Amino acid sequence: MNIKLLDENTLQAWDDYVNQSQGSTFFHRAGWREVIQRSFNHDTYYLFAEENGVIIGILPLVHIKSLLFGNSLCSTAFCVYGGIVADNEEATLALDRKAGEIARELGVDYLEMRNTAQITPDRPYKKLYVTFKKDLLDNVEDNMQAIPRKQRAMVRKGAKAGLISEIDEGIERFYRAYSESVRNLGTPVFTKKYFRYLKEVFKEDCEILTVVDSQGQLISSVMSFYFKGEVLPYYGGGTERARSVQGNDFMYWEVMRRAVEKGCKVFDFGRSKEGTGSYRFKKHWGFEPQPLYYEFDLVNSKSIPDVNPLNPKYRLFIAAWKKLPLPVSQLVGPWLAKDLG
Are strands 70-75 and 43-51 parallel, antiparallel or unpaired? Predict the structure, then answer.
């Protein structure tokens, strides 16, 4: 067995492995390597274990070296899931060992594995994030009835307000809604080209759904990923009007409705931090939280990093960011966001 680095000649073999492996996720796809390199210029180390010319395990890694947020090696940065996917324990151990070697050669503060299940019990993990997944029913109306009554009323309020959903090929309306929303949360926005590359690389598996009112005015928009019968609304946001007409509630229902019509079997509402507004929002939809195990190999750091908006030391920064004019946040935000993997 050999551990090798992904190159242009092995891209298809990597994705073939991802598509057939039970433990893989959309975020293990090789396209993320191209998107991250082109968008943020970070170094990547996409490792695979090969035996008799056949891939038997993979581990995508991204190196982020930031003066503000530290030096890390992560599987996978900018993604909620990651870690090793392998056919056997031997491949798992070999990939993990190689990742540790690279982490120490780079002199990072820590190596982070964003696992959906605990893989290495003796490593510390961050007890902060959960994910929300739910099986979809075959019939659209059955899925509507499965939403708790109060949340169902919110969706119907949006429909009564004359909201409709449209599929966008471009990113302009999405970026306006998304950037306004994250500015209001006090979070730096990603560069526009990042979303353009996501659409370009993942094609029909990356879809933008935009909600407008009866006059065609932008209300909200979301970028979703499709993978192995699952839909994952990943980046989304609403304009100032969205709250008064339940624009976000209607938007997520439209993603669900269209996913059912496409034959999807699972709705992945994605990651949230425990106790936050997004956590409560997803609970209101009838989804139950499932813990995520972000495991850390502390190389030079003495403790698990705490780079997230709940950290009190970022409170003043977040409060100031919320007050920025939207064009200023769109200009300055990408410089910061590229290191917030």
Answer: unpaired
The listed CATH number (3.40.50.2300, 3.10.310.40, 3.40.630.30, 3.40.50.12780) that belongs to domain 2-130+292-304: 3.40.630.30
pLDDT digits over 189-237, tens only? 899 999 999 999 999 999 999 999 999 999 999 999 999 999 999 999 9
Structure-block tokens of residue 179: 């950037």
If you compute the radius of gyration of the chain from its CA atoms, what whole number of angstroms results?
Answer: 20
- With a pLDDT cut of 70, the percent of the chain lying above it is 93
Q: Is pLDDT of 183 > 90?
A: no
Q: Is the separation of the CB atoms in 223 and 235 below 8 Å?
A: yes
Residues 6+ apart with CB under 8 A from 22: none
pLDDT, mean of residues 317-341: 70
Estimate to the nearest angstrom the gap between the alpha carbon of 81 and the chain centroid.
7
DSSP string for residues in 62-93: EEEEETTTEEEEEETTTSS--S-EESSHHHHH
- Structure tokens, 100: 């540790």
Q: Kindly write down the DSSP assignment for every residue of 214-233, as one continuous string.
A: TT--EEEEEEEEEETTEEEE
Least confident of 17-21, 140-144, 183-187: 183-187
Where b means 16+ CB within 10 Å and e means fewer, 85-97 reads: bbbeeebbebbbe
Residues 220 and 247 sit within 8 Å (Cβ to Cβ): yes
Classify strands 293-298 and 110-115 as parallel, antiparallel or unpaired: antiparallel
Question: What mean pLDDT do residues 36-61 have?
Answer: 97
Alpha helices in the chain, H assignment, sequence order: 11-20, 31-40, 89-106, 140-146, 149-160, 172-185, 192-202, 247-262, 277-284, 315-321, 326-337
Q: Residue 6's pLDDT is what?
A: 97
The architecture that CATH gives domain 137-264 is 3-Layer(aba) Sandwich (3.40)
Residue 186 pLDDT more than 80? no
Written as one letter, the residue type at 92 is T
